[in-house]
Design goal:
- The protein is mainly alpha-helical.
- The chain has one domain.
- The protein is built from 10 helices and 5 strands, in the order ββαβααααβααβααα.
- The protein has a 3-stranded mixed beta sheet with strand order 1-2-5, with helices on one face.
- α8 packs across α9.
- The longest helix is centred in the C-terminal third of the chain and has 17 residues.
Length: 248
Amino acid sequence: MDLAAAPAATATATVQWSGGEAWLVSLRLGADDVALLDLVRGATRTGIDCPLGWPAAFVDFLDRQRRGAVRLDEVDSVPARRAIVYRRTDLVCLAGGDRPLSVAADRIAHPALRAAGLLAVLAGQGVDVNRAGHGAVVETYPAAALRRWGLPSRTYKRAANGPARRLLVDGLLTAVPWLEVGRADRELLERSDDALDAVICALVARASLLGAVREPAPADADLAAVEGWIAVPTGRLGDLASPRPAAS
């Protein structure tokens, strides 16, 4: 699920797995909340390209700001502000060379607000939406996944980068010969970076089910359950076609 602030730019992909083969059974651009809720309920695990929580330090900061209890030294430098606006998982990604957006200080907060509402509905229906990625959903970061898989992770966004995106789609599908993708779906992947990100999210969800993603350190487990945790793949893309049946 490549979650945007509004349905028009929200893309979803469903991959069905059986033995060592997989099929892209659904690829959709323009998904509303009803479709997204149905997607999560119908899948074993759903990868969501969107922060699933806010930094605990930021939430605490807002509470103290409201009460007039903020200190100047908390915000008088970039490092001080970074400690407030980045989650623990963001800092881990930054240390590894990735560049996640801050949900507390960037426009990605708009999709995150939508995600919070969706997760609240699912939780009310009894769906396990553990933010650390051990339930029905897992937070994804397509650029980080592509980088770990040795594929281009930048310059494929937006219409102007169509040629680079077509090369990326070709490289991705060459690396996963066991994934069946129809012609119309391939054309959509080449045309829409949102659709392409949705497929990457589905592949990361598979990696998460197989235990092939970076887990929070024991000391970060409680924080990850509140702030969310980005599932960055640790294995090879080709290894996702294991004999274990699953849907993502």
